[in-house]
Specification:
By secondary structure, the chain is an all-beta fold. It has one domain: Sandwich (Jelly Rolls). Helix content is about 0%, strand content about 50%. The strands form 3 sheets. It has a 6-stranded antiparallel sheet, with no helix packed on it. The protein has a 3-stranded antiparallel sheet with strand order 7-6-9, with no helix packed on it. It starts with 10 loop residues before the first strand and ends with a strand.
């Protein structure tokens, strides 16, 4: 059994501006057999991630907070307990419209790689 604590994962600022802690990735120092990556991410109140797109599938599962999810020309309110699927190639960003952190789990399949992400102007 492999157990990993969120508090043991270093926090970084991702390319899209979110605060991110990578939990699982097949290419990192804690390799596993999966082909996906799993990260915990936070957008602070009043902030937004930068518009970006991936060449891979992505799923967000929202843990806390409220916000607006933008995917291409669609916008939807999101909150705790909701899931959104982001198709490959879609332009996406997330705005925190609440007073608490907007926290979510991010699954990327196949696993996230820098060359698969484009930050947009």
């Amino acid at each position: 059994m492999r157990l990993r604590k969120l508090s043991d994962c270093p926090e970084i600022i991702a390319g899209d501006g979110t605060r991110l802690r990578e939990l699982l990735h097949p290419d990192r120092e804690y390799p596993f057999a999966g082909r996906y990556s799993l990260a915990y991410a936070v957008v602070p109140p009043g902030q937004s991630s930068l518009p970006h797109r991936l060449t891979t599938d992505e799923v967000y599962y929202f843990l806390s907070g409220t916000g607006e999810m933008h995917i291409d020309d669609e916008t939807a309110m999101v909150s705790s307990g909701e899931v959104v699927e982001i198709p490959p190639g879609a332009t996406q960003w997330l705005s925190n419209t609440g007073s608490d952190d907007l926290a979510f789990l991010c699954i990327v399949d196949p696993a996230w790689r820098r060359e698969d992400e484009e930050i947009l102007p």
